[in-house]
Input
Amino acid sequence: MSEADTVIVGAGAAGLLLAARLAEAGEKVTVLEAGPERSTQDLISSQIWARKLKWSGPAVEEAGNHPVGHAFNAGSGTGGSAVHHYGVWLRLHESDFTVATDHGVGLDWPLSYEELRPYYDRIQTEVGISGDATQEIWRPKGADYPMSALPVFSQGRVIQEGFNAKGKHTAPLPLAINSRPYEGRASCLYDGWCDAGCPIGALANPLVTWLPRATVAGVKLVHHARVIRVERNANNPQQIDQVRYLKDGQVNTLKANRFIIAAFTVQTARILLSSADDDRPAPGNRFDQLGRYLTSHPAGTIFGLFEKETQPHLGVTGGQLLSHDDYDDKSAPGGFGSSQWLIANAIKPHDLLGYGTSRPDIVGPKVKPWLEKAAKHIGNMTLVAEDIAQPDNRITLSKNTDQDGIPLAHTYHDLSADLISRWDQRMAEGQGIFRAAGATDVWQGPRVPMHIMGGTVMGRDELHSVTDSFGRVHDTDNLFVAGPSLFPSTGAVNPTFTLTALADRQADHLIG
Amino acid sequence: MGLSRRKVLAGGGTALGTFLIGGRWVDASPKTARELGFTPQVLTAAQCEALEVTGDALVPGALKAGLAPFIDSQLALGSGSKLIAKYLGVDPLGQQSFYRAIADNLIINLAHPDTTAEQLTGSMASDSVSEWVGPPASYAFFVLRADALDVTYGTPEGFAALNIPYSANIQPETSW
Output
C-alpha cells in the first residue's frame, strides 16, 4: 500500500516546485532531502559560513580536463543549490534547443523554445524577475519582466565604457531579485551576500518561493534522508514500488504511486545507477545512456584595476549588466559555442571568487595595500561559455564506497578543443574590453566549472536519452527526473530559470 | 512576511568557536583563542606554529588573527569543516591528513637555519622546495594563503581594516 501519492527526492528548486504544485492539486507528497533543514533565519552573512550551504555529503570523485566542481556547485539542505545561487535568470535562446540539427554536435532538445516559453512567462510572474527586456536586444520572445531592472552602480558604469568603446551592447542583467517589494518579499539591499543565501527574501531562492507554498499545501519534508535507490515492482518491472533511504543510521523504505528524482545532477544519476538489479539494468539504462552527457559551463573571471572608484562591494553577486552580443553565432571563427558576459559582480576580498584570492602572486607586506586599493578600484566580470554534450562525459558508480557502504559517484568531464578555444578567445576579448574601459592592470582567473547538467538527459527516444520531454524515465511508468540533469544542451546561460520552467511544465503534465 | 531589513534576524546565530583553553572549553574567536593559549585538537603545537608562521608570511596579520586555531578548530569539525579546501578538491574528511602533511613539510623546511618563512613561500609558489612530499607545494601555498585571507580579512573586523562596509543581513556571531 502506498504511503504517498508522490515521493520527491531532493528539496531543491525543481523538487520543491513540484512538491508545491502537486500538493496544491490535492496529492499527498513526501520530500526526502539528504541535507539539513534550513530557513531564511539560518543564512549568516559570511563567505566562510556560506560554505555550509554547499555540498556536504559523501565525496564525489572528479576526473577529466574540466572537472565539474561538485563541492562548489552543489548544495545541501532545504532549497538545495538554489539557496546559494545568484538569481541570474536568463532564458535559453531558440538556437540552444537545436545544436545537433544546426551544427551536428551534441543533442537537440525534445521540445522547442516555443513550447517552453509559456512556462518561462508564467514562472517569471510567480517568482518575480527584475530587468529591462527592451534593452536585451538578443532576448528570445517572451513577456516583459514584472519588475524594473536593479540599479547599475559605479563598477557597472565603469566597465560598460569598455563595451561601448568596443561597439558592444550591454543591458541590465535580469535577476530573480526584487528591485521593489514583490509578492510580500522585500527589495534588495545590494550588499552582495547572495552566495551566503538571502535572508530577507529579496532573491527568489526556494526557501521563499516554493517552500512556503509546499508547507501550506501539506507537503511532508524529511531531512537527513539519503536515498540509496528506487526499487521495481517484482511483477511489473516498469513500475517503481518504493524508495530505499538512510536516516539516523537506519535503512527505511517508502512506497508511493509516483517517484520524482530531483537530487541535482550527480546524485540523481547515482541513485538511478544504484537501482539496477542482478537481472535488470538500472531504470533508463537499457541502452547504456544513464549518466552520459554530463555537462558544465566553462567559466572565468576578468579582473581589472581602474583609476575611477568602482565600489565593488555594492550590488549583487550575479552582476549588474549583461552582454549576449556573441551568443547566437555558435560557429563563429575561433572555436565553438555561445558565450555571455555577466558584468560587475559584487565581490569580496576573500573566498574562492574574491579578489584577494585572484592574485596569489601578491604576498607579504604588499597584500594589505593592494587589498585596500582593490576594495575601491577593482572591477570584474564573468564569462559563461557553452558546453556540448558528449557521451563519454559521464557519471558512473565508483568502486569506492562511503562510510555507509554506498558507492560514491564518479564523474568524468572533458571539454573539447574547440570549446576551450572559444573560452580562450572570449577571455582574451574580455581583457581587451577592460583595457578599453581604462583598466590599468588586467588579469584573469582560471577556467572553472560553473553549473552541472546532464547525466539523465531528456530526448525523443530511448536509444539516445534517459527520459521523455516530461522527465519520465523511458522504461518506467511512474519514475520521473527533474532538474538540470535533464538538459540535453547547456547554452551559455545560467540554468535555474530553465530548470524551473521545465519543472512547471512537468507539474502541468502530471496534474493533467 | 515578517522579515524586516538589515537589522533582521538576530536569532539566527552560528555556534561560537569552541577552544580548549587552560583545561576548559571556551567559546572564543580564533584571535582570542590564540592569545589565551589554546590547546589544538587535531594538529600538534609544532604543526600549528609552522602553519601560522608561513601563513603570516603570505598574509601579514594572519598569525595574530588566529590562523592556527582557525584551521585546527575547523579540522576538528570533520565533515562540517568550512575551510576553503572543500572547494579545492580536498574533501572535508580528508582535510586532517592534508593539513598535517603540509605542516610537516613546513616544519622540515623551516628548520633549516638559513630558510625564512618568506623564502619558503617563494619556493612553494614555484614548486621548487627541495624537501617536500605529498600535496604539491604550490597547491599548499594557494590553500594556505586563502586560509590566511579568510581569517585576516574575511571577517567584519577584516572588512573594517580595509574600509569596506560589511553590511551583514545576519551578523556572524563569530568571525565566520
